Amino acid sequence: MPIPSSASGADRLPTRPLGRTGMAITRVGFGAWAIGGTERGAQDDETSIRAIRHAIERGVNWIDTAPIYGLGHSEALVRRALKEMPSPERPYVFTKCSLVWDEANREAPPRRRGSSESLRRELDDSLRRLGIERIDLYQMHRPADDVPLEEYWQTLLELKQAGKVRAVGLSNHTVGQLERARALPPEDWRTRNVRFTGDALVRNLQLTEALKPIAARHDTTLAAVAVAWVLAWPGVTGAIERTGAGSGPPLPPSY
Fold this sequence. Notes:
Elements: E1 15-17, E2 24-26, E3 30-31, H1 45-57, E4 62-64, H2 73-82, E5 92-97, E6 99-100, E7 111-112, H3 116-130, E8 135-140, H4 149-161, E9 165-170, H5 175-182, H6 198-217, H7 222-231
Parallel strand pairs: 3-4, 4-5, 5-8, 8-9
Antiparallel strand pairs: 1-2, 6-7
């Protein structure tokens, strides 16, 4: 995404890669929470639109919004701000999912939902409000209460594969939760295996961390330590190191 051409050379802002998404973003983005006008009180919509356009003109190349910001109003204002803007000058649009409100009682606290049905419906609603065909970064706003992390993360990956979003992420999640989500692509069989999901995955990751000092002390790989641990059990005759299980020199033939 290029910096808008209306920004002068002096106004161009430095960018950094956003993970492995292929996007390079300015160090500061436009946060569209307040313009929703709920938590911060009523805002003047025309002033909000001018603020978005001014930020883009000065070189900011991404906008962060969410459906819950003004119960859809923030996303609608982002659409209005970008409507007349040529595509090459438009910023990246980041939005979120999982916080669902009750239209019959808009004052009630939002519910945290992560089912596939809910996330797909929320995405379609956001695309409609934003007036775009693809969201650049789609994030789980907060952990869901109704389904496990592995289930809603799988849905997000499927939405990415379908082309409706460019990249997916987790917002307001702990380091442990991020570790649970980061390891496996959706086509990997382990995403559907109980030993590699939920609490079992957490325990296995903890075991991996515990083995790292042992590998370092013996100047070897985690795979070698794991195989040696298996062979140390009475009754075990042989062990298999699967291809791709670790880096470093191959194990001796006797393994």
